Amino acid sequence: MSTEPAGLAARVVVVGAGHAAATLVGLLRQAGHTGEIVLVGDELDHPYQRPPLSKKFAEGELEQWIRPVEFYAEQGVTVRLGERATAIDVAARVLTLQGGDTVDYDVLVLATGARPRPLPVPGADLSGVGALRTLGDARVLRKWLDEERRLVVVGGGYIGLEVAAVVRSRGSAATVLEREDRLLARVASPELSAIMAERHGAAGTEIRTGAQVVGIEGDAGQVRQVVLADGSTLDADAVLVGVGAIPNASLAEEAGIGCEGGGIVVDETARTDVDGILAIGDVTVRPIAGLPGRRRLESIPSATEQAKQAVATIHGTAQPAPEVPWFWSDQFDLKLKIAGIVAPGQQTVLRGDSSTGRFALFHLVDGVPVAVESANAAPEFMAGKKWISAGTRVDPERLADPGSQPRDAVV
To answer: Which domains does the chain have, with CATH numbers?
Structure first.
């Protein structure tokens, strides 16, 4: 992790055109960067907001640009869309593109993101089976909804539940299949999982946990049924697969850049282990302040934080203060905000009433909040996020008292 500051005049090449990349190039110019900036993306669209794709795909404009399209030309950013980077010569500092073109760099920033994890079962390639990651995917999903197809969602994570919520809000049928014994098993507390299962069930979403998909069957190339391990089948005109994501780290791996758990390893300044190369966003495995080891986070706040780190590293300026990881999810009338990392063995304190749609679950270790999961509870979320950052001790009984203010719980 030895990349030296390159300075304001450095030629910065960014591979990837998602939120991390678009944020980085904007922050570079805001910080007075005068050198050439080149943005290389394999999609044809300019950088766009991905969170609305699963939350608001049913109506309105899908193309919500992170920055106006004209921003890049106005700021002197060379944008090369529809081009895929294929190789990095780390010694010569040269990036090769699929068509054979090469791009020299002083600093290379890898912001290649992640791709949907495929479902490894027969029939997964049938027409009507898809994932949700790109604008094109969202357009297909909107078409399915408009055609009132019977939708089966494979995967009870946030993406799958957000899609199911939109589908049910439109009055169409949705079935969610989760192979674990509860929804959100890898990312949320059992308490929040139970609340969300109840909310979806009340809205008419069919939820099956412990459901292992072993095959997808079709007719004339079109999906018709989903087959489960217990031998049962579900009729389906469309199947959305949401079983996680795989970091797009092959470009880094082939160049000899250090990777771990499928992602590119970086430090708290976005440096990789190769001089002149940084990495940011969903592709990275990064340290989190106050937690051991490194983790891969998939969230807009994490991508933004790492973009700030990269700018500071390139310019040799002070690094931003570490931030508490957080993200959000919209499902029905619930605006969920989650901060920190939920883990087994934590004490859970419920503040509010989940039946009203306004509540917060605080997760404590020795009286100190380490995570908060909230719904329509902005004061509780902000307090929890602040407490996590500061290591503030709270009194669980006072915290649970709805007649008090969050600040009254501080010991």
So the answer is: 12-115+245-315 (3.50.50.60), 129-241 (3.50.50.60), 333-409 (3.30.390.30)
